């Protein structure tokens, strides 16, 4: 899902109301197509993938958190 931009920072936002199932715990490099986290919506697991090279700067949700459409999942750079 495309990240929103705010003051030069990018945020990976949740594409639907769901539960975070696999938030990774530390900042790291990412590559296009890499799975960054998994969200569960209506008993279906959905992978949220990177669209470009970059770095996960901050994980904004914990495993099991209920996240709303548009909520920030990760801050990326």
Inertia-based shape: globular
Question: How many strand units?
Answer: 9
The main β sheet shows up as: 5 strands, antiparallel
Encode the helix/strand succession as letters.
Answer: EEEEEEEEE
Question: Rg from C-alpha positions?
Answer: 11 Å
Poorly predicted segments: 1-8
Proportion of residues in helical segments: under 10%
Strand order of the largest sheet: 1-2-9-7-4
Helix vs. strand class = mainly beta
Strand content: over 45%
Mean pLDDT reading: 79
Tally the helices: what do you get?
A: 0
Q: Separation of termini?
A: 15 Å
Structure summarized in a few sentences:
The chain is mostly beta strands and 77 residues long. 0% of the residues lie in helices and 52% in strands.
Structural summary, described in words:
The protein is an all-beta fold. Helices cover about 0% and strands about 50% of the residues. It has no helices and 9 strands. The protein has strands at about 5, 10-15, 20, 30, 35-40, 45-50, 55-60, 65, 70-75. The strands form 2 sheets. It has a 5-stranded antiparallel sheet, with no helix packed on it. A 4-stranded antiparallel sheet has the order 6-5-3-8, with no helix packed on it. Strand 1 and strand 2 (about 10-15) form a beta hairpin. The protein is globular and about 30 Å long. Residues about 1-10 have low confidence and may be disordered.
